[in-house]
Amino acid sequence: MSRFIDRLRRRRPGDDQALLAGIIDRHDKASGASAQRGRSVPRVEPRAAAVARGRRVGWMRPAVLISIFVGLAIYVALEQPRIPGITGSIQRPSELDSEFVGTVRVVDGDTVSMRGLRLRLTGIDAPEKDQTCTRGGKIWNCGEQSGAALKDWIGGSILTCLSNAIDKYRRPVVRCTVRGFDVAAWSVENGWSLAVPIGPPDYKSQEAHARSLRLGLWSGEFTPPWEWRAARGVDNQ
Fold this sequence. Notes:
By secondary structure, this protein is an alpha+beta fold. Helices cover 38% and strands 19% of the residues.
């Protein structure tokens, strides 16, 4: 039995039918040898060959059926851990640690869409589309400008994005690069988005750079996007 189990473990795809035929064939040979000790029996085609050819077999001895059931039971027991959802040893593929490569459509200053899937840039927060800022005493649509600046910079280039989380809107949270540059870092460094106030300080140095040179949003007065949303009862994006 142990050797039989070892053979099952070493099986290759497509061996299952041959394995079943082998069980039947060995039993037939053993039965035929016992019958020939006392009398001569006519030669008939082994049932294993008939099974392998897909031909109908009239009946099988109980011992043959038992052998088949035992073999199938061991097969299922060995195969089961490799079936997703039964033991959890193989998890369903998710968007975590997934790589997305392709051209994108810029949704706003911190979100892009690739083949219809929205990807949220990690570590930054940009003004909302309808958010306005002031500069030189004049109101301007900094939300639209943030997205437009990102769109112009990316152009038609291919982005490579790696997901490290999923947000509450089921969007992959990604770190993207284009032409060797970190997309989020570029946005913060040029003043079109802010480093998130809570979390790793990934882009704090870029924000300090933009602020010192009064780039983008820093060229005038603005409300941080998270405060702007809170004042209007808008859920954080």
